[in-house]
Amino acid sequence: MSSFKSASPILAKAYDTALLDLDGVVYIGEDAVPGVIGALNQAHDEFGMTLTCVTNNASRSPQRVAQHLQELGLEVTAEDVVTSAQAGAAELAKLIPPGSNVFVLGSKDLAREVELVGLIPSHDDSQIYDAMIQGYWPDMPFRMLEFAASVLQTGVPWVATNMDMTIPTPTGVAPGNGTMVTALGETVNRKPTLVAGKPETPLMQQSIDRTKAKRPIVIGDRLDTDIHGANNVGIDSLLVLSGVTTIEEILQAPIELRPTYLAWDASAVLTAQNGTEIKDQITTCGGWKVVAGDLLGQGDALDAVTAVTVAHWNGEISLDSALLALAGIGLEVR
Asked: Domains in the chain and their CATH numbers?
């Protein structure tokens, strides 16, 4: 894994499997990101690239996720979908005996995944529980949160499907599962026993194992989950700017959050990727270069972002100068 340094041939030729995040990558809300569905289908049909959908959203079953994707035109089935609910349930089954009672602070689809691994899920607040699993649940009654706190105070294992603090919506960002996990943790003064979703390894590893991928690439819009998750399991990644990550956040990314490639959106699977060249303290990408703290050149603005980012990471241009340079060529940096 080398962040923005190495050029690549067409990604769909270089990698056999795309591990696709969904929110902000394939769709936002109910609608597809323009140009992405056709490109992904072409990557599969023309180059044989396996499309595997890897989502931290635990509120919907693989069948429901696949149905939504099919309605958008993506050629996938439920077998091509791996969710943090599946990964969380699988990890929970390693912590407690078969037939154990599990309090599910989450949707019916999350409860179903718990049942499929041989455990007994319930929302009943009159039972005694052996464990708790928590996932994104937009319709959660507040009384369930209160009962969950009482369950956690007994010391039972607690699995969180993910720690996403926000989720993208058509009107902006909204609170994610991580906000509720954090609230509960602060209330009862403990942390989850295990987190299944990205950036932790269970969900990503389960996705790789299921597809038997030899050369997988993660395609995501979040540094803290998708890119960090790829780096945690040692595979390459493509960060797309169609979701929640800003150019300023890329510039400030620590090494563990840096992607291999950068693109405007996931249709980039059909294109070759420019690398950066550093020589005599000049950082070049495509038609752009950073010389003595100045951005010079012309061409695809994405190459300008790449050149400036690498130059900033190497201490050749300050953050303020980098932001001003990129804003100066018409880019929204925040």
From this structure: 11-56+199-270 (3.40.50.1000), 85-194 (3.40.50.1000), 277-328 (no CATH)
